[in-house]
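debug: dumping io for the single-chain case to check the tokenizer round-trip. Nothing else runs in this session.
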Amino acid sequence: MAHALIVIDVQNDFCPGGALAVAGGADIVPGINAAMAQADCVVLTQDWHPANHLSFASQHAGRAAFDVVEMAYGPQVLWPDHCVQGSHGAGFHPGLNVAAAHLILRKGHRRAIDSYSAFFENDKTTSTGLFGYLQQLGITQITLAGLATDFCVAYSACDAARLGLGVRLRTDLCRAIDLDGSLQRAQAEMAALGVQLVSH
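debug: decoded output
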């Protein structure tokens, strides 16, 4: 077993109609389902926040969504409340083939720290355990897909590359938020780390 498909946060709140919708977020679901059939291992990540998560603008008096604040671990974008544990918004898009997953990894469940990456929380030191799981299976190559390209997908890709994995990002199976040029910055950082940006 050498190759894993890691599908990042294809959840209702990130799809059209959701609390933090990514334009075209639902369009990638059929292609992701098709890609699952080509992978030795399929991992789904799921944003899974407590209702009072400190990345939510609602938890900061006088702050609005998309403001940036300093947390103990560095700058943090404040988001609308989203992917609250057990809510409809936290659920996977209904078209996603969840039954194909070998592992579902929930992240962002600690109130005081956000977790964009599938590998590390935003302090860049607290591990999610995913790397150890892949190592145990002998997986050295991963392909990433999901939402959103410039946040959780890019953070996951960069961390995976730093950990020594071979990383491909399926640009056709991702969609971006593109907050103030965040997509271009993310693409440049990924390319600098050797992440292959491919469209099929």
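debug: round-trip ok. The CA atoms of residues 42 and 141 lie 12 Å apart.
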